Amino acid sequence: MLIKRFRRTDDSSTLDAGRRRALRTGASTLILALAGPRLAFGNTIVAVRVWPAKDYTRVTLETDTAVPFQQTLMESPNRFVIDLDGLEMNAALRDLVAKIQPNDPQISQVRVGQYKPGVVRMVFDLKTGVKPQSFTLPPVAGYQYRTVFDLYPAVEPDPLMELLAKSERKAEAFAQSGGAAGSEDSEAFFRKYAQGDTKPSGRQPSQTGKPAAKPADKSPQLAQRQDDDDDAPALPPARGAKTARLLTIALDPGHGGEDPGAVGHRGSYEKVVVLQIAKRLRDKIDAQPNMRAMMTRDADFFVPLGVRVQKARRVEADLFMSIHADAFTSPEARGSSVFALSERGASSTTARLLEKTQNASDLIGGVNIKTNDRAVAHALLDMSTTAQIRDSKQFGSALLRQIGGLNKLHSANVEQAGFAVLKAPDIPSVLVETAFISNPEEESRLNDPAYQEKLADALLTGIKAYFAKNPPIAKNRTT
Predict the structure, then answer these.
(1) DSSP of 182-233, one letter per residue?
(2) Rounded to whole angstroms, what are the CA distances from 20 to 10, 14, 29?
């Protein structure tokens, strides 16, 4: 319909004024009708995501503008109630109900509805008490505004207690099977792997400096319990017994949850392939009599960089390995690399680029800065030492020698960069770039289970080779 422009005349009348008001009112109504609830309430839900894990469950609402909200934690029964202002129900919000999985450790179900015009209410029925952390993140890396609800269990899982429980089961299994290998001291055990040798190269001194005794003098179960339980009275070792303990390897699959990491040409996510590789390596480490693995994440959820370091230190890890499969600006880039910490800047252009992308993980994954003790975080990251870097480079060299037999090396030497995740001051720490997921050929290999197995074997052999040349020192018992 063609609407002629209203033209004011010098001889204006009351009728003309009424017609002008009617026209303005009609135009405003038409604009509001076309805009719908967006102008009425201002916000649009872009996506809803849920990341369940034993550490915590994260619920993320992505919107085109920041969303104000109010929250209430209720008991008897346990519920978490959130009122979102400036929203109307839409398909994305309705989908939240189906995103809650039966095995979610924290949430049993969620109810979502229009509480009143412009306010959407979400009610999370909880399986247990939680400590929620809620915050808003600004747009970054392809994300728009994100409102994040992290539901931490009231009693947070302790990585050390989980590790000790696994070690106890392992000790019992070795005891039932005879467990002769498990009774060797750690130094003698790993010297077997020097130069591919399968036999001890002579009698090794014990870590206590006492003469070595036959394995029968001390059962692996007793040795393990003495090492892992400081709360129990210290039992004097049998005469001539060796000091045995399980060496702890902290495995850190990069990225996770909201942070996918690099994305390959075929759509592979870095966070997925590195988790698969880490799980294979974990199983191989746990199969060794004198070793055990701790993973900073064992599912698809985000772990802040500082928390990854804290977990490794909590279990007094002997080594820390962060596993990645990053991307470069060119799809032709290929090969494996190993990085140690640097206090003087990145050692190459590639290292500088990777340092920037990896250290941005907290921004992409989403960290509630207000709840972090910044003083503690900065102190932790500034405590790196020359000795740690030296040992890390030796560890990295041992890994490179093994990986080089499986894949082309992007760099034959251990590179260095200021990766935040490597800054545990008392643990030799490396970051392994298994391959470039941005290279189509290497992306295909990273998704191949057979190749993942070979890569895990190479990494395990590198760990053993490092300990063969750098025998583990005696430590206080892990408690």
Answers:
(1) GGS-HHHHHHTTGGG--S-SSPPPPTTSSPP--GGGS-HHHHHHHHH-SSSP
(2) 14, 10, 14
| C-alpha Rg value of the chain to the nearest Å | 29
Alpha-carbon distance of 203 to 201, in angstroms, equals 7
Report yes or no on whether pTM surpasses 0.85: no
Q: How wide is the angle at C-alpha 73 spanned by C-alphas 70 and 79, nearest 5°?
A: 115
8 Å CB contact between 441 and 334: yes
Q: Is residue 138 part of a domain?
A: yes
pLDDT value at residue 111: 97
Task: Answer for the pair 419, 339: CB distance below 8 angstroms, yes or no.
Answer: yes
First CA to last CA distance, the chain: 81
Which of 120, 153, 186 is where one domain is finished?
Answer: 153
Q: Contact 185/206 with Cβ under 8 angstroms?
A: yes
What is the tally of structural domains in the chain?
A: 2
Between CA 294 and CA 320 the distance in angstroms is 9
Q: CB neighbours (10 Å) of residue 327?
A: 22
Give the amino acid at 415. E
What confidence tens digit (pLDDT) does each residue in 1-46 have?
A: 333 332 333 343 333 444 444 444 444 433 333 444 433 455 789 9
Residue 180 has pLDDT above 60, yes or no: no
Q: What angle do CA 183, 184, 190 make, to 5 degrees?
A: 140
Residues 6+ apart with CB under 8 A from 479: 160, 228, 229, 230, 231
Q: Is the pLDDT of residue 217 over 60?
A: no
**pLDDT tens sequence across 435-444:** 999 999 999 9
Q: Is residue 28 part of a domain?
A: no
Which residue from 328, 353, 313, 335 is spatially nearest to 159, judged by alpha carbons?
Answer: 313
- Helix-strand-coil split of the chain, %, nearest 5: 40, 20, 40
Indicate the residue among 96, 128, 153 that finishes a domain: 153
* 165 and 139, same domain (yes or no): no
Phi, psi angle pair for 305, to nearest 5°:
-60, -45
User: Strand pairing of 45-51 and 57-63?
Assistant: antiparallel
Enter the DSSP assignment of 243: P
| Inside any domain, residue 288 | yes
Q: pLDDT band for position 190 (50/70/90)?
A: low
Tell me which residue range forms the domain holding 226: 158-479
